[in-house]
Amino acid sequence: MAKNDPYAALRIKEFNIFLLVRFLLVFGWTMQFIVIEWQVYSITKDPLSLGIIGLMEIIPAFTMALFAGHIVDQKEKRNLLATCIAAFSLISLGLFLLTWDTVVGHWSSKTILYSIYALVFFGGFLRSFFGPTIFSLVALIVPKKIYPNAATWNSSIWQMAAVLGPALGGFTIGWIGVHWSLCIIFGFILSSLFILLLIKPKPILNPKIGEPVIQSLKEGVRFVFKTKAILGAMTLDMVAVLFGGAIALLPVFAQDILKVGSEGFGILRAAPAIGAFLTMLITAYIPISKNAGMKLLVAIFGFGVCIIVFGLSNIFWVSVMALFFSGMTDGVSMVIRQTIFQLKTPDHMRGRVSSVNSMFVGSSNELGAFESGITAKFFGAVTAVVFGGTMTLITVVATGLASPSFRKLDLTEDLKAHENDN
After folding, report:
1. What is the pLDDT of residue 81?
2. Which of 20, 44, 310, 369 is buried deepest, with most CB atoms within 10 A?
């Protein structure tokens, strides 16, 4: 198979099945999140309530992350992912039933709101398992020499789903309402579960089955902190999502600042994902493993600039373009980060490394939403977004100056080391 074949990973049947599962799952997840955001803000008209959604998910996701990584490294990945999807479908079903007219007519708004928070909390628990399981499973499907290509297509499918899910969510809220939008989401989640079963169970590569939990967790954390490339990429991503949380405040911008309604909300929500998707399609043809460290720094700096422009804009299409370009820069960043993680992580530690990443990065999405909600509550949505973008710029500059080795990071040699892997 040609080294620079842009379709190398797509020539593997199970990887295509995996991508379809990932698409359906992310589509349903992102669509569900946007519908929940809209419903919660419609009930409360308080930006802090949007932050609370993030808080309800981050608490279980963060506290369970390391333990989840240990479990993932000990278990068969296909069946574990199927269990997680089945449990997630119950959340979607619960939200669908919760917004039924009969329930809405008899329950108070506060009761419905708290019930939504409770289901989001359960989703956070499941999320601690999703990331490590998916990260570990894809590494068992494709050979190491095409990890960068697999990371590109994997991230591209994620972004495509993140484009279509929020966009459809924004439109279906206006067309058929919140309740039936959640019914569609339930259907997507169930479909992903049945299609996943077409992938064969994979071997467990961990030589330390039955290892004590504490010892296992310490080993995972120790590996992350001594591997500078992984730690640097993780830190940059964490700060970008923590302070660049403009997405969490989109309902505020759509309803109160730009005044574009649910359809405009869907466009705003989809814009960054469209930019990221287009960028990652390009990276399938133009490898970005050379000078990866500097490219990652430049990409995240550009992301921060775009977030500031979005925060200052009160013109709809300027806001859309700012989010679009923020997605383009984030697309480059995502492919580089995923390639670093896949190439630098041993097979038997993928669950734990991914869990550490989810603690300090994945959970930052929700923590960032909470931070943005609080800042918007006291200082306004515009100030919250501009502050976040500025903090991202400061962090990138500080990291670049403080870590010359990360600036010089190049993944070309790592790829050459895996050329003969099957």
Report:
1. 95
2. 310
